[in-house]
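[INFO] parsing input record for Peptidoglycan-binding protein
[DEBUG] input buffer:
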Amino acid sequence: MRTGSSGPAVKAAQAQLAGYGNRTAVDGAFGPATRNAAVAFQRSHGLTADGIIGPKTWNKLINGTKTSTPTTPAPTTPAPSNGRLTQRQALAQLAAAGIKAPVGRTSLAGIRARTIQGVIALKKASGGCTIVITGGTESGHSTRGNHSHANGYKLNLRTRDEGGCVTNWIKTPQRKGAPRGTDARWHGTLAGISAEYVYEIPRGGGVHWDITFICPLQPG
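[DEBUG] output buffer:
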């Protein structure tokens, strides 16, 4: 992203820059103020100060810490609990974060706590993209592996219409990895939770994001 760029990815970057105290509007338009904020951030984090937000700058934005203020070691805190939630608990947490209830017959009964924390973190990191959940713990998904839908580690998100914002965000700052079979795959970290994003194209149709949320700090 650079001067002249626009769209949800720029808005997400502006939100991150603002979080570091840089003065820029979060309007999705990469103008002089956004470039100046990017340059200031890059200088304070040992990056090439060219005002272009590429992979290195983005990774620092979402994982870095302010370098201008002396820091003291943070107290050790346990990794977030990863117990299973009831449908009501999951919906309440999503609603509090501005995420609507899943569509269709999607169920969240037995979803992992970190899976809900991860999708909420995704909404924040993407600059407020609309999240449309189309798959959860209901039957019909593959049960292979420990981190399956049935075990509460996966959510499916819409890619079309309002889901296009999430699609653009995933493909911009996240790390592209080896495909899973014939489906493209990306990786990233959201609030300490490892996320694997697979652009799943089922044979019967219904393209969607198949996202697995795993925290490497605490198996579960």
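[INFO] The radius of gyration is 18 Å.
[INFO] shutting down worker
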